[in-house]
Amino acid sequence: SQKIEQNSEALNIQEGKTATLTCNYTNYSPAYLQWYRQDPGRGPVFLLLIRENEKEKRKERLKVTFDTTLKQSLFHITASQPADSATYLCAPNNAGNMLTFGGGTRLMVKP
Amino acid sequence: DTGVSQDPRHKITKRGQNVTFRCDPISEHNRLYWYRQTLGQGPEFLTYFQNEAQLEKSRLLSDRFSAERPKGSFSTLEIQRTEQGDSAMYLCASSLSNLQGAHNEQFFGPGTRLTVL
């Protein structure tokens, strides 16, 4: 069965550094991958979508890569700020309408 | 506020009782989704509507769960004979599909936190 892995341990970094979060998937080949941010007690908020034919996508301080050979996506936040502290969820998916999420990685940016 | 809204935000019930949650999607969105999320996990898909038609249901959706979207606008999710294992955050999301069926972003509501005692 398909499996999505995100580091369950929190990632602690210093303000101003680049945060890098990993999303690995197995047993399927997603056509696209979405990243969401979730704050405690709130629903996820969409950040970026990258398609299988795109290697990299950027939005302001965010960068996402998608390596279909390694079956991995990396999510980078440059010049991180304490306000970036949240849980980040990846959702690699194929054609279809539901999203399948990883367990999320909690990011803590310390001032 | 024109985002997705859910009601109630919190619900505490006793085992065996029935509960009903409501979701109001973004008005022009034709797709509506229900997910369930437990602590430390990502959201798990439950069911999905395109307009008023329920098109997909997860195996997670036992026969105690029923969802409706009668006029293609708001949706309700009912859980009958609640069990302690039903305790979770229930999230609603909506999206607007285009003619090509592109995988557009989903907009989530704040969720309804259910606690079954």
Calculate Rg of chain A over CA atoms.
13 Å
Shape of chain B: globular
How many E strands of chain B?
11
Rg from Cα of chain B: 14 Å
Helix content of chain A: under 10%
Q: Could you explain how this protein is built, in words?
A:
The complex is a heterodimer of chains A (111) and B (117). Chain A contains no helices and ten strands. Chain A has 111 residues and is an all-beta fold. In chain A, the strands form two sheets. Chain A has a five-stranded antiparallel beta sheet, with no helix packed on it. Chain B has no helices and eleven strands. In chain B, the strands form two sheets. In chain B, strands 2, 4, 5, 6, 9, 10 and 11 form a seven-stranded mixed beta sheet that branches. A four-stranded antiparallel beta sheet of chain B has the order 1-3-8-7, with no helix packed on it. The mean pLDDT of chain B is 92. The interface between A and B is medium-sized, with 26 and 28 residues.
